[in-house]
Request: fold
Amino acid sequence: MHNIDDLHRLAKKRLPRGLYAMLERGAEDEVTMARNRSDMAKLTLRPRTLVDVSRRSQDVTLFGKVSRSPVMIGPTGFAGLGAFEGELKLARAAAAAGVPYVLGSVSMTSMENVMQHGGGGRLWFQLFPWSDLSMNDEVIERALAAGYEALVITTDTPVIGNLEHILNSGFKLPFRYGFRNVLDVLARPAWLLEVLLPYLIAGKGGMPRFENYPRALRHAVTSSSRASIVPVMSDAFSWDALRSVRRKWPRTLIVKGIMDPRDASLAADLGVDGIVVSNHGGRNLDASMSTIAALPAIADAVGQRMTVLIDSGFRRGTDVIKALALGAHGVLLGRAALYGLSAAGEAGAARALAIFHEEIDRTMAFLGCNRIGDLNRELLVFDADFGRS
Ligand SMILES: Cc1cc2nc3c(=O)[nH]c(=O)nc-3n(C[C@H](O)[C@H](O)[C@H](O)COP(=O)(O)O)c2cc1C
Reply:
C-alpha cells in the first residue's frame, strides 16, 4: 500500500458494490468531485534547495493543542459499515497518529463508547442540525457530558445532495434487503464475515443503529419507521440558530461547509472558533467551485482571526502542502481515511495517515521547509486558469 490509490483499489474489492458507491460517489455528474482534483493540479510547487532540512517537524497547534500532523480524520457517515465498529477503528488510528478524529452524526458507535474505547486521542463530534431544534440541544448536551473537545456543525446540507449514482447502485435508506443487495453482499464474503456478521452477533441478530441520533430517531439502518423519513437536516437552520448553539456549547465550535469569505467573516463575528472550507467532497452541489480555489479568499478574510481547516479531494501530501501554503491550518480526510478503513480496518486507517505523514515530510524537504509555518504562497505557482474552470 504505497499510496491512497492503492488503499482505494483494495477497498473497492472488499466492499459490497452498493456500499462502495455510497462511500465513493458524488452528486449528479460528479463535476465538483472532479474539479476538487483538477484545480489541485493547477497549483504547482516551486522547490527550494541547499537548505538544511534535517530538523523537519510537521507538528501544528490546533485550538491550543499540538497535532503530530496537519491532517485529521473528518466525519463520515456509515464509516461503521466500512469495518466492524469502524468509528472505533478510525478513532484509534487517529489517536495513535496524534491527530483528531471527528465522529459523525450518522455513526453506528455511540459517542460514549468512542470516548471510552477510541484510544484516548482528541475527539470532536459532528452534528447535522435537526429540524426540531430541541433535538439539537439533546445531542449537544450529550456530547458535552461525554467530554468531546469540539463540536463541528455541518451547514452545507440544508437538503440532501442529489446522489443519483448511489441510488442507482441499489443503496437506499432505510437499507432494504433485496435481491440485488443480498447478491451484492454474497459477492463479498470477507465483508459479510468480518463486518456484517459481527454486527449481527453483537446486536443479537439486530442491525447496527444510528447510536448518536436524538433518542426519538435512534433506529436501525434497516428500519422503515416514520422516524427514518424525518429529514436529517433542517433547511431552516440559520445564523440565529447557530448563535444559540454558540451559547450552549462553551468549548471549541467549528462550522463545516463554508465556501464564501462573507460567510467565513459572519462565523468569525459570531464567535465561532474554526471553519472547514468544504463542498462535502462533491456530494452536495454539483456546480460548486473547488475548495482549494475557494480557500485563498477565505484565508485572507479570516485566517488571522480563526482556525481555517479544509477538505474535499485531498489524496496526497502535496495536496495538503498546497492548502497550508495558501493559508489553511489543517486538512480533514474524508474518503482517504475510509479507503484505509475499508481496505484493512484500523491498520488500513493508520496506513492512510502514515502515507500522508510520509508524503508531507518528503515534500517539506523538497521545499526547504523545517516547519509547517515555513510554508507560504511564494512556494506556489498558479496556472492561469486556476479556479476559473
Ligand atoms: C461516505 C461519506 C459520508 C459522509 N458523511 C458525512 C457526515 O456524516 N457529516 C459530514 O459533515 N460530512 C460527511 N461527509 C463529508 C466529509 O466529511 C468530507 O467533507 C468529504 O468527504 C471530503 O471530501 P473527500 O472525501 O474528497 O476527502 C461524508 C463523506 C463521505 C464520502
